[in-house]
Amino acid sequence: MASDPKFLGNPLLKTQHFIGASRWHQVSETEITGRHQVRVPHQKYTDESRKTVAVKGHSHGSATMWYKKVEGVWKFAGLCPDIRWFEYDYDQVFADTKVHFNEADRVQDTQHH
């Protein structure tokens, strides 16, 4: 889902993730939970020249992230963002995504009934 062209894989979408105020809790020898403040600016451009911004929206909040040690190497194991507020037209950044994924959910639901 994240790399879908209608979501974060959209070549017209650019983001930056600013992470700070991190706190870490080692749950076990192989698991760590991190809690971070985040600010994530998003800009979607009108075309691949990236000269004109079509819509922008910046989200602010926190994220809980899980890390797991696999064969001696720490790996990313999960993410739970908690968006508290946003600037500009954040709800429009992924507007076509909502339709795209909701349609896929409806098709999947009708196939199961």
From TrEMBL:
Q: Which SUPFAM superfamilies match?
A: NTF2-like (SSF54427)
Q: Does the keyword Transmembrane helix apply?
A: no
Which Gene3D superfamilies does the protein's record reference?
A: 3.10.450.50
Q: Does the keyword Lyase apply?
A: yes
Q: Which UniProt keywords apply?
A: Lyase
Tell me, what is one Gene Ontology molecular-function annotation carried by this entry? lyase activity
Database matches in Pfam families: Scytalone_dh
The chain positions of domain Scytalone dehydratase-like read 1-98
Q: Which family is annotated? A: Belongs to the scytalone dehydratase family.
What is this protein's name?
A: Scytalone dehydratase
The source organism is Lasiodiplodia hormozganensis
